[in-house]
Amino acid sequence: MDYQNRAGSKFGGGGVASKEATNADRRERLRKLALETIDLDKDPYFFKNHVGSFECRLCLTVHQNDGSYLAHTQGRKHQTNLARRAAKDAQLGKRNEEGAFTGANAIAVRKNVVKIGRPGYKINKTRDPVTRQLGLTFQLQYPDLAPETAPKVRFMSAYEQKVEDPPDKNFQYMLVAAEPYETCAFKLQAREVDRREDKYWTWWDSDSKVFWAHVTFKTEREERYSGVPGLAPSKGR
């Protein structure tokens, strides 16, 4: 911290630090301390959201940069929540060992699942003959998947993934997950998906072990004027 050139101080001497300067110096010291002890890649509570900010999943706080997050991890709130979480995990672990949770109130402990490979897939491009909307039909094969287990679909923005760096905002990702198979990620254009029932649907054929997913994108006009007051909604909404 610079103690010179402050109001009320003599030449070569240190003046009284302001509250803002003291807080800035404290945050910088905490950030340097955290850098020596914390690896953000291994922090389970560190999360980068779709707008580029950083979140603490434990304390539910948002930070504009990694330095602010690191300083937060050394603060009282984060340390207190860490202690509470550790005590709760220890208590749950002890109860599970004693068999306290049984029957209808049992807590299912997630076990490490051995992945058996990627499913086979096929993609077809489509175009609605009436609205001229572009779409994609995905066909994935899960021959060893249990019939009662249906694959799940999730859309992810470019800022959520950690494979491509820097992220490209012009693309999004569609994830299809079904354990014990590896999760498949399909890179799509960052266009808004039409969520109407006949435009977006999924279907799991438990007999043939084939999963279908159909995605239709909105037209450029619908994307441009979506949510504009006074604009008539599209048919089927």
Give a written overview of the molecule:
The chain is α+β, with helices and mostly antiparallel strands. Among the domains are: 19-74, no CATH class; 120-224, Immunoglobulin-like, CATH 2.60.40. It is built from four helices and ten strands; from the N terminus they run H-E-E-E-H-H-E-E-E-E-E-E-E-H. It has helices spanning 19-37, 66-73, 76-98, 220-224; strands spanning 46-48, 54-56, 61-63, 120-127, 134-141, 152-157, 171-177, 184-189, 201-205, 210-216. It has a four-stranded antiparallel β-sheet, with no helix packed on it. A hairpin with a 5-residue loop joins strand 1 and strand 2. Helix 1 packs across helix 2. It is extended. The N and C termini lie far apart (61 Å). The model is unreliable at 100-109 (pLDDT under 50). One of its GO terms (molecular function) is zinc ion binding. Residues 54-84 form the Matrin-type domain. It is found in: Nucleus. Its main location: nucleus. Keywords: Metal-binding, mRNA processing, mRNA splicing, Nucleus, Spliceosome, Zinc, Zinc-finger.
The tally of strands reads: 10
Contiguous low-pLDDT stretches (5 residues minimum) are: 100-109
Following the backbone from N to C, one meets helices and strands in this order, namely HEEEHHEEEEEEEH
- The appropriate CATH architecture of the domain at 120-224 is Sandwich
Rg, alpha carbons: 26 Å
Quaternary arrangement of the chains shown?
single chain
